[in-house]
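Design a sequence for this backbone.
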């Protein structure tokens, strides 16, 4: 079972739309599991037309600090607001109060007042799972409002997708990662067999792609590029192609600008089903990926 992770340096370049269509063309010949690891803004399910998930599980991957009655005896309680890097602790009439929305559960306050502070696990996310009408399972996750720990949530999603893949004897896990280079991206990329980088012909698109690929290079994972909306700025597309050549990265495909990308999203339909002429292009991209794998 191979893992293909799709990432982008910045948002809005068509990463999730690409992930939805690639999943469908792969599922035509192979058994796959799709995993939406963009836990801060998951939308792969919407792009696949899923309006309701069948299974929902609330999970705990993070801690929060809580004040107990022994805090009064703590000699260091007046110093708690200074030690908190997230400014989550304030003093109210000499008694520390912790803002649960600012607390990151780092434990610094617990070290200062070990008896007066408790670290408790909190339900910081939900994991969702469902079958799709395209013949494969989708696992998704959603970080709760005001909570943290997105990287750890991604690990839970990946593990659940792996278990489903083993049970269904899947050939591939397709991961739709977050944009950027933060914790959820690092967690998504780690242990992948191949990474597809999505970019657009703009200065920010290329600059952010470079940063994202640095994460991929760190883990020594083979990768390839997709240039979306390539015909909007062909001069800059050529610059991206030169960059790929310098880095010895394959250009897996170039997708033209098409307003039907947006129309497909509005209609909760993957692009290759909304505009059938893209079927051949995505099959060629699939073949390019598999030839490297």
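Sequence:
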């Amino acid at each position: 079972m191979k893992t293909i992770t799709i990432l982008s340096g910045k948002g809005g370049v068509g990463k999730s739309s690409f992930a939805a269509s690639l999943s469908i063309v792969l599922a035509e010949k192979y058994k796959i599991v799709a995993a939406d690891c963009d836990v801060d803004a998951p939308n792969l399910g919407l792009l696949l037309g899923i309006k309701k998930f069948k299974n929902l599980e609330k999970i705990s991957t993070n801690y929060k600090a809580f004040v107990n009655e022994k805090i009064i005896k703590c000699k260091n309680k007046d110093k708690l607001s200074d030690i908190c890097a997230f400014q989550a602790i304030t003093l109210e009439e000499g008694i520390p109060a912790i803002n649960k929305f600012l607390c990151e559960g780092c434990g610094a306050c617990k070290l200062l007042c070990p008896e007066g502070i408790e670290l408790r696990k909190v339900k910081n996310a939900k994991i969702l799972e469902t079958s799709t009408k395209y013949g494969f399972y989708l696992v998704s996750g959603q970080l709760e409002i005001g909570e943290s720990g997105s990287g750890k949530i991604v690990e839970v999603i990946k593990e659940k997708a792996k278990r489903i893949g083993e049970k269904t004897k899947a050939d591939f896990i397709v991961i739709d990662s977050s944009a950027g280079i933060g914790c959820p991206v690092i967690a998504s990329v780690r242990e992948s067999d191949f990474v597809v980088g999505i970019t657009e012909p703009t200065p920010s698109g290329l600059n952010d792609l470079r940063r994202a690929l640095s994460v991929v290079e760190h883990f020594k994972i083979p990768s390839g590029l997709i240039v979306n909306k390539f015909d909007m700025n062909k001069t800059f597309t050529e610059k991206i192609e030169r960059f790929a050549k310098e880095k010895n990265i394959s250009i897996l495909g170039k997708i033209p600008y098409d307003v039907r990308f947006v129309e497909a999203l509005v209609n909760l339909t993957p692009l290759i089903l909304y505009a059938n002429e893209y079927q051949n292009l995505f099959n060629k991209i699939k073949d390019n990926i598999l030839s490297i794998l």
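The chain has eleven helices and 13 strands.
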